[in-house]
Design goal:
alpha+beta; Beta-Lactamase; 6-stranded antiparallel β-sheet; 20% strand; Glycerol operon regulatory protein; transcription regulation; DNA-binding; DNA-binding transcription factor activity
């Protein structure tokens, strides 16, 4: 546990120490005695006792008189943050964790008319002929994230989209017929994820999963993209899909406690 130090004239040391006590509890130490808390925080037993009993009084810590443990009330501290942030802010740390795990680029996008718009991204290396930044747009039909989003549209909205979009070939394997495209969307709807293999651009392979709000509606999508020479479709399904789906679930869980007015704002 890092030491508490005064860094400015407005620093409140007692608040910092109280948070230090809360952070001492973790997966390895869900319950601790007074002595263990003092040792983990580098506080004296007397100081640790004061902070613990204050937290017990406030409802953030429980004790049976010997051991101490956090209560579910500490989640309110995280909810206060989550309730004030938007989808990109919620998604960014999850994308960073995903990229660290799979060593490939990851992004989040939303549907805007016929296109997807990137709202969060963590790149590793440039694998497209164009740079992808926040605000970059691509035709939804040729992207894994776009197909995840289109697959959740109401039938009337999807019919309207298909009646207006021109499924032009953008890559060597782009689906260009409405019948084949609707068949692919049905497959995505059933399996819950999309894999696009060199349909937006030659050499680009991506896999995407839906991000849902508290009403279980798909409001965004998250993907992992890689160069076709590094990852086969089978490897994408076996190695990239599980961490991708776990990331989508974590973002969805955080999004569920954020105000809907800000949840998908860009």
């Amino acid at each position: 546990m890092e030491p508490v130090s005064d860094t400015s004239g407005g620093y409140v040391q007692s608040l910092a120490r109280g948070l230090l006590v809360i952070r001492a509890f973790n997966e390895s130490n869900p319950e601790m005695t007074l002595s263990e808390v003092a040792r983990a925080t580098d506080l004296s037993r007397a100081a640790a006792r004061r902070f613990l009993h204050t937290l017990v009084h406030l409802g953030y810590v429980w004790t049976d008189g010997r051991v101490f443990a956090l209560t579910p009330r500490v989640l309110e501290l995280g909810f206060a943050y989550l309730s004030s942030v938007s989808l990109p802010e919620i998604a960014q740390p999850h994308l960073e964790r995903l990229v660290t795990e799979v060593h490939e680029s990851a992004s989040v996008s939303v549907l805007d008319g016929p296109d997807i718009v990137y709202v969060a991204r963590v790149p590793t290396s440039r694998i497209m002929t164009v740079s992808i930044n926040i605000g970059t747009r691509f035709p939804a039909y040729a992207t894994s994230m776009g197909r995840v989003l289109l697959a959740d549209l109401e039938p009337a909205a999807l019919d309207a989209y298909l009646s207006e979009v021109d499924l032009e070939p953008l890559g060597p394997h782009t689906i260009t017929t409405p019948a084949a495209f609707e068949e692919e969307l049905a497959r995505i709807r059933e399996q819950g994820w999309a894999l696009v293999d060199q349909e937006l651009e030659a050499g680009l392979r991506s896999i995407a999963a839906p991000i849902r709000d508290r009403a279980n509606k798909v409001v965004a999508a998250v993907n992992i993209s890689s160069h076709a020479s590094r990852t086969s479709p089978e490897e994408a399904r076996e190695n990239l899909l599980p961490p991708l789906q776990a990331t989508a679930a974590r973002i969805s869980a955080d999004l569920a406690v954020a105000p809907q007015s800000r949840a998908v704002s860009r």
